[in-house]
Amino acid sequence: MEAMRFSVEPSPSGGYFVRVAGVDAPVSRHDTEEEAQEAAASYDRGVRDNRVGDLQRLPDGGEVLVRAVRPEDKPLFARGWERFGEESRYRRFMGVKRRLSTSELSFFTELDHIDHEAIGALDPETGEGLGVARYVRDRERPHAAEAAVSVIDSAQGRGIGGLLLRRLTHRAAQNGIRVFTAELLTSSHTMLHLFEKLGTVHVTGRRGAELCIDVELQVSDAPTLELALRSAATGHIGRRDGAA
């Protein structure tokens, strides 16, 4: 990975921003300069210690590292956002979105791994983020959770989205979730196909170009896979041989 350079600067509205070189949007906002400096140091350590995870081979022969998302991943999300095309952003957020806010970066990375889980895929050579799948439990339906998956444009079509959704499904089952819900554009045939591989899909509503679905999850009870997924989610994961 090209070395990330972090800086701290005052926020126009008060407090201090942490920024990463090459990205317009700030990574996080803090009340004091000391807190911002501590956060920048944490991001720097996270980047340098990033090549950990469950190494998985893709159908095309390539490999990715798969692990649970952590708070130190905010710079990866900020940089990864720059690698999504306009169409990919539109499909993910159902509209035009130019940048991620600091509050969104916090939401995406500061998780309890029970009601809100996210599994990321990283390039094992560079440590850069390639994609992420997440669920957020529905408070009104605790057995259900809204799920979504995003893969940067250059890594699409390699099977990363399906891999991440399968991992997410097992984590959801461990936490008592039996149904995924999702809102898709009716033109998102690839995304619908990925959800169909997880279980039975029921269309629950249509709003113009949007499709609402429920997915009844089918989960394997293979103990070795569950053990690996628990390890990935809790951080007890093996370092890739030769990684820095």
Shape: globular
Structural class by SSE content: alpha+beta
Strand content: 25-35%
What strand line-up does the widest sheet have?
4-5-6-7-8-9-11-10
- Biggest sheet architecture: 8 strands, mixed
Distance between the termini: 11 Å
Low-confidence stretches: 222-244
Assembly type of the shown chains? Answer: single chain
| Count of distinct strands | 11
The Rg value, from CA coordinates, equals: 18 Å
Order of helices and strands: EEEHEEHHHEEEHEHEEH
How many helical elements?
7
Describe the structure in your own words.
- This protein is 31% helix and 29% strand.
- It contains seven helices and eleven strands.
- It has an eight-stranded mixed β-sheet, with helices on both faces. Strands 1-2-3 form a three-stranded antiparallel β-sheet.
- Strand 6 and strand 7 form a beta hairpin.
- The longest helix is centred in the first third of the chain and has 16 residues.
- The termini are close together.
- The C terminus is likely disordered.
Key features of this structure:
globular; disordered C terminus; 7 helices; three-stranded antiparallel beta sheet; alpha+beta; single chain; 11 strands; 31% helix; 244 residues; eight-stranded mixed beta sheet
Offer a concise description of the structure.
By secondary structure, the protein is an alpha+beta fold. It has helices at residues 33-48, 74-81, 86-93, 102-109, 160-174, 189-196, 223-234, and strands spanning 6-10, 16-20, 28-30, 54-57, 63-68, 116-122, 129-137, 144-151, 179-185, 199-207, 210-217.
